[in-house]
Design brief:
Blueprint (H helix, E strand, L loop, with lengths): L33 E5 L3 E4 H14 L5 E4 L5 E5 L12 E9 L4 E6 L3 H14 L4 E5 L4
Antiparallel strand pairs: 1-6, 1-7, 2-5, 3-6, 4-5
């Protein structure tokens, strides 16, 4: 699963403003011919990204090339069960990446459009947001 090798700070402040507005960068295809674009704002976990990647890779039978254009760098913490109030913040539990509408999540090339569309559809089922298939030929 994706996780940062090294962090400046072990725990991050919650900050809810990072899922407002639309994506100003990462909203165009950079590497591949086909892409999966986020249509909603949400935090996507490393597990969800990995599940989507595996379903796409298996569908295209390891043909072509896949790029993941987002990375889960934000740690989320969680307190243990039945811990009383106070006693500080919980331990880091998982990593998420905040995604805004318009952000490209995955890119793909080296296969035909019908296969890419079906693979991206399978990946979209694994994610907690609405997604849209895009390609350089559709514009």
């Amino acid at each position: 699963m994706l996780a940062p090798r090294k962090q400046k700070h072990r725990k991050a402040q919650r900050g809810r403003s990072d899922t407002k507005g639309i994506s100003m960068r990462g909203n165009k295809l950079s590497f591949g011919t086909y892409g999966l674009k986020a249509m909603q704002a949400k935090e996507i976990t490393a597990r969800q990204l990995e599940a989507a990647r595996r379903s796409m890779t298996r569908y295209i039978k390891r043909g072509g090339k896949i790029w993941i254009t987002v990375f889960p760098h934000k740690p989320l913490t969680k307190k243990a069960q039945e811990v009383p109030m106070g006693s500080g913040k919980g331990a880091p539990e998982l990593f998420v990446c905040p995604v805004l509408p318009g952000r490209i999540l995955f890119e793909m090339e080296g296969i035909d459009e019908a296969t890419a569309r079906a693979a991206m559809k399978l990946a979209a089922y694994k994610l907690p947001i609405k997604c849209k298939f895009i390609s350089t030929t559709l514009k």
